[in-house]
Structure of C6 zinc finger protein:
Amino acid sequence: MRHSVECDILLTSANAVASPGGISIETGQSRSVGSDAVQASRGQDPSLQVGQHWQQAPALDVSDLELLHNFCTSTCYTLQSNPTLKTLWRISAPQLGFAYDFVMRGILSLSALHLAHSRPDQRQEYISKAMQHNHAGLMTMTAVLPNINQKNCSAVYLFSVITFILTLASPRKPGDLLIMGQSGIAEWLTLFRGVHAIVKSFHDELQSGVLGPMFSVGSRRSQLRDAHANELGPAEEDHHLGQLQCVIQQSVTDLHLLTIYMAAIVELRKSFAVAYSEEIAALESSDVFIFLFRVSEEYLNLLKDRTQESLAIFAYFCIITKRIENHWWSQGWSDHLMSQIHDLLDEEHRLWIRWPMEEIGWLPSRGA
């Protein structure tokens, strides 16, 4: 129009007005191929129609897009050491998130905590976003739990894994013992154990589904853990665990309680074996935290009651958590747990945990 030159395309389209209609790009509905040409011939700019459609579109949530981008380009690589599982977190996890809102909420929450860690000047802003997404995800997933099936079991399981990592990455509170809060067994552990009990019914679907590699790698790591425990020699770590076992045997007269404590030490010894036989870079978080899922419900109840023996055993767990603090989401947990445990022990039982304290380099505050 500016140069007073007729457009060949518009002329061709105008000649096709009488032909059958095409498909509208904006709406996907049938319309006349030459409608733009007709509007142009009437002095109407077709681009204005496109602009009107654009103005009616919902606004982009750039904040959430930023979180998803950060997860796919950075966070996903920090969650596992195994290359296959890194790819699973980068590709398969977001794909599940597109299908299930609660999974995407968990992904965005985890990414927000990662950014809070790497951008301290915006820490509170990202923590607030993380809490919002996590709360919304928990609300949705809780409603799904009674209706878990073959189709959604992978999404529910993945969300439980994300919830555990979120617990480790979230700001810590006084009195928080990771698996025990001030009001009892931690909410995440209750959720995780509940989900595991449910998904046992869908073992085959999970093994053959999108999360299959996660279960395959986990099974191999579990076998490695048992193998290392059977081969364990007279290492320094085992010597100190043996001393802890002796003092508990000498102080606990109730045979039932003694059995519970000894079983917990056996599980801890297995975790020690693999934690000290593997290079730190090759150590998976599951090698350490599997202890939390292998101990009995009775031991957890004793820990909830803050018995001195259960706390002393848990202090030794701090040593192996220290070995995976190269991950941003687990940094500081060993010192935090040791501090909480030390405050709960009397003077006699504080002597029981001198080696774990020295091994992680933790010292009580002056006068404690």
User: Anything to note?
Assistant: The chain has 19 helices and four strands. Residues 62-208 form one domain.
